[in-house]
Structures are given as structure tokens and as C-alpha cells.
Amino acid sequence: MKILVTGGAGYVGSHCVRGLCDADHEVVVYDDLRAGHREAVDKRATLVEAGLADLPVLEKTVKGAGFEAVMHFAASLDVGESVKHPLDYYENNMVNTVRLLRVMEQHQITKFVFSSTCAIYGIPESVPITEVMSQSPINPYGHTKLAMEWAMRDSAVGWGLGCCALRYFNAAGAASDGTLGEDHDPELHLIPIVLQVALGQREKVRIYGVDYPTHDGTCVRDYTHVEDLASAHLLAIESQQTGCFRCFNVGTGVGSTVKDILEAAREVTGHPIPAKPAPRRPGDPPELYADPTEIMSKLGWKPKYTDIRQTVRTAWQWHQAHPHGFQSE
Ligand code: UFG
């Protein structure tokens, strides 16, 4: 299948591009490299260096090219920043996605896989989270992602789009061969921050909140290996029919607290990784983990990484070999 992958130079996108190339799909990556990395783009894929706001380039890329499907990773993803600068999020995550969908409609590309998020559930009424639970995001990031799920549902009815929203939980880890990994600037995610302490790049980890109603007082998340996310995308695109909307939680079903992550990282790195309690981070739900029954039964997805130490180990391998991210090369 010929597939256009927006944001294919980013963390999750680059792992998915590799998975698509391994499965012999023809991939064109569309990425402005503001957050992505040229070095992360699989050599078998073609890179178009442009943003979705650049409509003439998008049109030129798609026109007559014979794409059958689009995977859409390009988005802004920092919850805290979305609260401070909501319109940037509405612009990048909504306006640009609508632009992309419109180009797809014009060129009759009817298969779409969308990076959605567990942030659409807001503070869930219970855990584990199923797809039918109420969707009430508590920040602009979640609002923009949910709104795009609505645009997809409506497009399925209106013009026959076949679409799958994959609701990620916390993407984590790195490619098992150590060549691709997480490189954000600034880095805000827990596992890379913890490993930067182990590398001596930071002094200590700040634990945002130790008084949550969880077993050790710290937040619970479902850390899902990025290669398992990639396999979910492959299964989704290869089974996608036109004229329908599907959505799946993509998580392991196992929750880990911030303290669990610290313990796992201490074990993997052999470093004491000092940590100190800090105030809660605004907008953090106490406990998020997936019920992955739907994706397992409907797509046959099964995560390879179910022990958080294995996931942290792959991330550690990456961070040790690339202490300054892709720039280390
Ligand atoms: N945390 C710390 N210290 C840090 C960094 C994070 O204690 O220095 C905690 C956070 O408070 C949270 C957990 O570690 O409890 C995980 O935080 P991350 O920033 O790694 O990830 P989030 O859970 O905040 O974010 C993820 C996705 C978002 C998604 C969000 C939904 O990255 O895209 O879940 O809540 F929107």
C-alpha cells in the first residue's frame, strides 16, 4: 500500500514508518522537522519536508501520487503548553487535520489512522478504561484530539472515510536495536527524565504529587512500548475498510506508578536516581490505564512488552548510546 505518514520523523511516527517499511509498504513521510528528526526517518521512505499548513506542498505531494492511506502523527502534544497556548493547539491539531482530511476527500484517499490519546477520557470514572467510557477531556490538547475524532466519524458517514483512532496511553521505550528513540526538546516525559538523571544530565527527578489516591500516592500510567504502538498501527491500516469509524485503546492494561518507574530505572541502570516530592502538576489525572480487550480481539494486537523493566531497558539502551538524542550521531 502507498501510505502518506505525517509526523513520520517524530517519536511514535518514526517507529511506525519503520514497521510499515518492514512490511513492504511504500511510505512518504511528510514532516516539517520542527519536532521531528531527519535521522529518524527510515532510509526506505521518502521525506517531504513541509508542514500541513503549507497547502500547495501538501496538494502537490498528494496529487496523482496514488496514496491509498494516510497515517497522521503530526500534532502538538504537551498538555501543559496546550493550557497556556490553546489556540496553537486548535490551529495545529484541528485546523491542520481538517486541511489534511479535505485534501484526502478531494483525492479520494479513504483510509486513515489517527493518533488519538487517553487524554480524551479526562478523569475517568473508573479504571481500566474502555472505549465506551465517557469522553470529557480536561485540557485543550484532549479537546482538539476528541474534536478530530468527531470530524473522522462525520467523514465516515459523509464521504466514505475509513478511519481508525488509536487512543495511545503513555508511549515509552525505544527500538529494540537501539537505533531509534525518544528525543524531545524540551523533554517533559517521565522515563527520559529519569534516565537523564542516571546519565548525570540532571540532578534529581521531581515527583509531581505524592498524595494521589493510589497505592503509593503517585500517579498511575500505562507505559506502552513504542514498537507495540507501531504494530497496532500496522494492524489498523491493513484491516481498514472504507466508510467506517473505529477506535481502540492502545495500552498494556498494566498500570505503573511514578515510583514504580523509578524503581525499574534504578534496577536497569544501577544508578540510585535521587527523587524528591514536588507539587502536583496541573491537569494530571491520578490513574490512567487501558482495557485493551477491544484491540486484542478485533485487531489481534498483543503487546510484546508487558514488563515495565523491559521497556525501560530499551529506553536506557537508546539514551546511553544517544545522550544528546539524534544530535549525538
Ligand atoms: N512526572 C513526574 N515528574 C516528571 C515528569 C512526569 O512525576 O519530571 C509524572 C507526571 O506527573 C505523570 C507521569 O509522570 O504522573 C507521566 O508523565 P508524562 O509527562 O511522562 O506523561 P503524561 O501522562 O503526562 O502524558 C501522557 C501523554 C500525553 C497525554 C497524557 C494524558 O504523553 O500525550 O498522557 O494524560 F495527553
In short:
The protein has 329 residues and is of the alpha/beta class.
The rough form would be described as globular
Give the CATH class of the largest domain. Alpha Beta
Calculate Rg over CA atoms. 19 Å
Poorly predicted regions: none
Say what oligomer this is. Answer: single chain
Number of domains: 2
CATH architecture of the largest domain: 3-Layer(aba) Sandwich
Tell me, rounded to a whole number, the average pLDDT. Answer: 97
Order of helices and strands: EHEEHEHHEHEEHEEEHEEHEHH
The class by helix and strand makeup works out as alpha/beta
Number of helices: 10
Describe the protein.
The chain has 329 residues and is an alpha/beta fold. It has helices at 11-22, 55-62, 79-84, 86-106, 140-159, 190-198, 226-238, 258-269, 293-299, 308-321, and strands at residues 2-6, 26-30, 46-48, 69-72, 111-117, 162-168, 170-172, 205-208, 220-221, 223-225, 244-250, 256-257, 275-278. It has two domains: 2-171 and 224-250, NAD(P)-binding Rossmann-like Domain (Rossmann fold), CATH 3.40.50.720; 173-222 and 253-290 and 306-321, Alpha-Beta Complex (UDP-galactose 4-epimerase, domain 1), CATH 3.90.25. Strands 3-2-1-4-5-6-11 form a seven-stranded parallel β-sheet, sandwiched between helices. Helix 4 runs parallel beside helix 5 and helix 6 (190-198) crosses helix 10. The longest helix is centred in the first third of the chain and has 21 residues, at 86-106. It is globular and about 55 Å long. The two termini are 32 Å apart. The model has no long low-confidence stretch (mean pLDDT 97). It binds uridine-5'-diphosphate-4-deoxy-4-fluoro-alpha-D-galactose (UFG). Residues 77, 79, 117-119, 141, 170, 188-190, 193, 205-208, 219, 221, 258, 281, 284-285, 288 line the site of uridine-5'-diphosphate-4-deoxy-4-fluoro-alpha-D-galactose. Uridine-5'-diphosphate-4-deoxy-4-fluoro-alpha-D-galactose binds at residues 77, 79, 117-119, 141, 170, 188-190, 193, 205-208, 219, 221, 258, 281, 284-285, 288.
